[in-house]
Amino acid sequence: MSIQWYPGHMVRAKRQVEDRLKLIDVVIELLDARIPFSSRNPDIDEILKDQKRVIVLNKIDLADPEKTKSWKRYFSNIAPTVAVNSLTGQGVTQILRLARDLMNEEFAVLKEKGRNERNIRMMIVGIPNVGKSQLINQLSNKSSAKTGNRPGVTRGQQWVKLKKGFELLDTPGILWPKFEDEQVGFRLALAGAIKETIFDSELLAYKLVELLSEVAPEKLEERFKLDHLNPDTYELVADIGRKRGCLQSGGRIDRDRTSDIIIKEFRDGKFGNLTLELPPE
């Protein structure tokens, strides 16, 4: 499943991030806890270089808790890392604490010079639909950023005042121009980071069912009340369609509707807590 997508507004967004870095103390790099590897834009490392940063694993309510711990240990070797749920606010206050810790040395110098601490200026970066706007609303304790369960909701940049001496620059999501690994494109499409007009949703659903048959067959059976999993993915999707009443005239399976149900229920966490990637050994 090959997906290539890099619309013009993302080129502009990348340039805007590069231009604004000189104003920023700490960058919040936001990842999807279900796909930490695929949701980590490799361009960000090149852009940020030695910039202070906090890595945030979001959507932990949808991910496997033990695998989230493994990813947290892995990323902690790169930068301070915290796992959060931007919908409920779980873990969010730790982000500010870690950002403050990164600034301790600089503030100590200001104190020696008899100067007051200033606001810590942060920037939040991440792929589309990773929950940036929800996280900003949690950090600011108000609905200052637009939210939406689709990529590309944030198109411009805006400064947001946070509590306790912090300011934050919101930026649009940035995807990288080419997916070297087809699986990365597949996982990003599953997570909702890519517009649905870009990929074949039926093929995406087939690949998801195939994957779940391998890594979580019991959850697939339970969710769709299946007696067994047909080893033929095409027929298995048809079984799911019949169970959900997705039928057309003549009893034919409505595969488009079935595919939409499978993808939506994965995104809504109906299969339970699932993490699709493991950190490197």
From TrEMBL:
<dbReference type="GO" id="GO:0005737">
    <property type="term" value="C:cytoplasm"/>
</dbReference>
<dbReference type="GO" id="GO:0006412">
    <property type="term" value="P:translation"/>
</dbReference>
<keyword id="KW-0342">GTP-binding</keyword>
<dbReference type="InterPro" id="IPR019991">
    <property type="entry name" value="GTP-bd_ribosome_bgen"/>
</dbReference>
<dbReference type="InterPro" id="IPR006073">
    <property type="entry name" value="GTP-bd"/>
</dbReference>
<dbReference type="InterPro" id="IPR023179">
    <property type="entry name" value="GTP-bd_ortho_bundle_sf"/>
</dbReference>
<keyword id="KW-0963">Cytoplasm</keyword>
<keyword id="KW-0547">Nucleotide-binding</keyword>
<feature type="domain" description="CP-type G">
    <location>
        <begin position="14"/>
        <end position="177"/>
    </location>
</feature>
<dbReference type="GO" id="GO:0003924">
    <property type="term" value="F:GTPase activity"/>
</dbReference>
<feature type="binding site">
    <location>
        <position position="173"/>
    </location>
    <ligand>
        <name>GTP</name>
    </ligand>
</feature>
<protein>
    <recommendedName>
        <fullName>Ribosome biogenesis GTPase A</fullName>
    </recommendedName>
</protein>
<feature type="binding site">
    <location>
        <begin position="58"/>
        <end position="61"/>
    </location>
    <ligand>
        <name>GTP</name>
    </ligand>
</feature>
<dbReference type="Pfam" id="PF01926">
    <property type="entry name" value="MMR_HSR1"/>
</dbReference>
<dbReference type="InterPro" id="IPR027417">
    <property type="entry name" value="P-loop_NTPase"/>
</dbReference>
<dbReference type="GO" id="GO:0005525">
    <property type="term" value="F:GTP binding"/>
</dbReference>
<comment type="similarity">
    <text>Belongs to the TRAFAC class YlqF/YawG GTPase family. MTG1 subfamily.</text>
</comment>
<comment type="function">
    <text>Required for a late step of 50S ribosomal subunit assembly. Has GTPase activity.</text>
</comment>
<dbReference type="InterPro" id="IPR016478">
    <property type="entry name" value="GTPase_MTG1"/>
</dbReference>
<dbReference type="InterPro" id="IPR030378">
    <property type="entry name" value="G_CP_dom"/>
</dbReference>
